[in-house]
Amino acid sequence: MKVLVDWDLCEGHGQCEFAAPDVFTIDDEGDLEVLDETPGDEQRAAVEQAIRRCPTHALSLAD
Amino acid sequence: MTTYAEGPQVDLMDLAPFIEGRENEVLAELREHQPLHWNDEPDGPGFWSVTRYDDVVKVVSDPATFINGEGTQILSRKVEGSTSTVHNTDPPRHGPLRKLAAPHLRAMKVKEWQDIIDECVDTLLDDLEARGEAELVKTAAALLPIQVLGQVLGVAREDCDLLLDWTNRVISDDPEYMRGPDEKERARNEMFAYFKELTEKRRSAPAHDLVSKLVHAEFQGEPLPWEDLAAYYFVLVGAGNETTRNLITGTVLAFDEFPDQWDKLVREPELLGSTIEEMLRYVTPIRAMRRTATADVELNGQTIRAGDKVVCWFQAANRDPAVFEDPDVVKIDRTPNDHVGFGWGIHACMGSHLARAEVSTFFRKVLERGIRIRPLAEPDRLHTNQFNAYKRLQVAIEKEDGR
């Protein structure tokens, strides 16, 4: 799976970092950094949770 | 209750159902029969209410059509007075302004405050256990968020009582906290005077706290002027304080209502994370936030006119049976749980991670100590329709058998 970010929508709320801290992090400027753009299947549940819980709908998956 | 076809007159400005704890019946009536509801106001222009999950998400996800800049209180005013907080700021200014504080409250950063949270919770639970019986809000629920937030901001521990008093007086319209008609203004001025002094101290000698970060931050190439700093402090203190305490108190009440769920959590403490999410849904400390339409919008067959107020009821959305199975039941293992207890959209709660850390630490330590906090009477609820807030809850602290 591949994680896609719509950078126009992302505001750095960091709910993704809460749901999947091995895949997403927020830096000191408040910007999202994707630590692993192609996470393994063991991260799928966490990444799907991150996508659902993003309040600006900035995340999606390409399989 | 009557149905829409029979023309019920639900008046959300009538505080009785909110004070008596039967507001969910009223909100369910609207969600089912009048998903876009018009409410007259005695001293205002009136407002629309949206109560279905999809409609609430739709409105708060469209910050161009539904703005915060005209205020987010149901009443036509801004609680912070003439200053403009990040909460009442719209794009394009909103995003960069939010990013001045948000990274310091993110999930990973909050871990740096865990020792302070642990220490605060231990002190409060020691005190509760020693008392055996106590008024929960005053003794613990109101103290935890203000003590933690105070230290995150850089306020000295001994001054945290002041913060609490200011918040009580500024946020609420409850007559109990109002010593006079200009009380809000006075409380605002006292708080701003205190923070002005703290600002100057941190300007010359920065410390590891949020006030220092904001004082030394640059916004569009310039330091924030005093008015913007003051507004920022205001929103952090108000939002960080008036919410988490009610989640703690509301959770104690919810476990009293669903004791089997407490027993389940005792057996399966690994469910604490999903428990907190479920309580955010079930309790919904901030019931509603208001937006103002910038254009005419069709919704559920009616027209919202440009300039109309639109109140988004997160509490009603969080109990929408279209999204949540058995919405009026607490299920601590509910998954998925796409609640809007922290709001939604660009203005979603900035302190969510801190709130989660505080409340989960509180109940983790209650579990570890083998105690149970049991309500002894009905709570006294704050006289407001916008916040699910408690003034008092008498509780017993009991050692659980065999634990």
Set down the secondary structure blueprint.
The complex is a heterodimer of chains A (63) and B (403).
Chain A: E1 2-5, H1 15-19, E2 24-26, E3 32-34, H2 44-53, E4 59-62
Antiparallel strand pairs in A: 1-4, 2-3
Chain B: H1 16-20, H2 23-33, E1 36-39, E2 47-50, H3 53-60, E3 66-67, H4 94-98, H5 107-110, H6 114-131, E4 133-135, H7 136-141, H8 143-153, H9 160-171, H10 183-204, H11 210-215, E5 218-219, E6 222-223, H12 226-241, H13 244-257, H14 259-267, H15 272-283, E7 288-293, E8 297-299, E9 302-304, E10 309-313, H16 314-317, H17 352-368, E11 371-375, E12 380-381, E13 390-392, E14 394-399
Parallel strand pairs in B: 2-10
Antiparallel strand pairs in B: 1-2, 3-7, 4-14, 5-6, 7-10, 8-9, 11-14, 12-13
Helix pairs in contact in B: 6-8, 6-17, 8-9, 8-12, 9-10, 10-12, 13-14, 13-15, 15-17
General description of the model:
The complex is a heterodimer of chains A (63) and B (403). Chain A is α+β, with helices and mostly antiparallel strands and 63 residues long. A two-stranded antiparallel sheet of chain A has the order 1-4. A two-stranded antiparallel sheet of chain A has the order 2-3. In chain A, strand 2 and strand 3 form a beta hairpin. Chain B has one domain: Cytochrome P450 (Cytochrome p450, Orthogonal Bundle), CATH 1.10.630. Chain B contains 17 helices and 14 strands. In chain B, the strands form five sheets. Chain B has a five-stranded mixed sheet, sandwiched between helices. Chain B has a three-stranded antiparallel sheet with strand order 4-14-11. In chain B, strands 5-6 form a two-stranded antiparallel sheet. In chain B, a hairpin with a 2-residue loop joins strand 5 and strand 6. In chain B, 47% of the residues are buried. Classes of the chains: A alpha+beta (63), B alpha+beta (403). At the A-B interface, helix 1 and helix 2 of A face helix 17 of B.
Backbone structural class of chain B = alpha+beta
In the sheet with the most strands of chain B, the strands line up as 1-2-10-7-3
- Binned, the helix content of chain B reads 40-55%
CATH domain class of chain B: Mainly Alpha
